[in-house]
Design a protein that fits this description.
The protein is built from six helices and five strands, in the order E-H-E-H-E-H-E-H-E-H-H. It has 163 residues and is of the alpha/beta class. The protein has a single domain, classed as 3-Layer(aba) Sandwich (Rossmann fold), CATH 3.40.50. Strands 3-2-1-4-5 form a five-stranded parallel beta sheet, with helices on both faces. Strand 1, helix 1 and strand 2 form a beta-alpha-beta unit. It starts with a strand and ends with a helix. Bound molecules: 4'-phosphopantetheine. The site of 4'-phosphopantetheine (PNS) has 9 residues, from strand 1 and helix 4.
């Protein structure tokens, strides 16, 4: 039987409802979805450690039968090959995401032509949500409750203690 395994890679610092929405959509169309947290991110000082981020995703997705969580470093296409995955799933929220996503997809295709990038759009209500905005708004006392899973909200409160 022909099955499709896909990798949904990202920094996930932390998981948002936009990510979760995409995981649900992706899990409906592929047979196996591996949510993969990048270990060697160049995005600067993270708020949550990689194990904390992976744990939050695991908890938020534990009821999905075909979703697993992993961490990786190095090239995404190498990780995908190791995992015997045929596709990479990425979310596009707005046109502004497109250029970066297009470049990554083309570079990944150059590095490994056997791996396809699949783009999906999250629900409209999450099109402005990003981990970076969540952290910034939360640090300043803003309400982000509707934009992250409840367990992420709890971890944010515990982590950003000065609030
Ligand atoms: O959620 P993010 O931070 O936008 O995810 C970016 C990610 C993890 C998908 C990207 O940085 C990545 O794949 N990094 C691994 C290194 C790699 O393969 N680089 C070449 C891709 S152009």
């Amino acid at each position: 039987m022909h099955t499709v395994k896909a990798i949904y890679p990202g920094t996930f610092d932390p998981l948002t409802n936009g990510h979760l929405d995409l995981i649900m959509r992706g899990a409906k169309i592929v047979d196996e979805l591996v949510v993969a947290v990048l270990r060697n991110s160049e995005k600067g000082e993270p708020l949550f450690t990689v194990p904390e981020r992976a744990e939050m995703i695991r908890e938020a997705t534990h009821s999905f039968g075909n979703v697993t969580v992993a961490t990786f470093d190095g090239l995404l296409v190498d990780f995908a090959r190791e995992q015997k995955a045929k596709a990479v799933l990425r979310g596009i929220r707005a046109i502004s995401d497109y250029e970066y996503e297009f470049q990554m997809a083309m570079m990944n295709r150059k590095l490994n032509p056997d791996i396809e990038t699949l783009f999906m759009m999250p629900a409209e209500k999450y099109t402005y949500v990003s981990s970076r905005l969540i952290k910034g708004v939360f640090r300043l006392g803003g309400d982000v409750e509707a934009l992250v899973p409840p367990l992420v909200m709890e971890r944010l409160k515990a982590k950003v203690a000065f609030r």
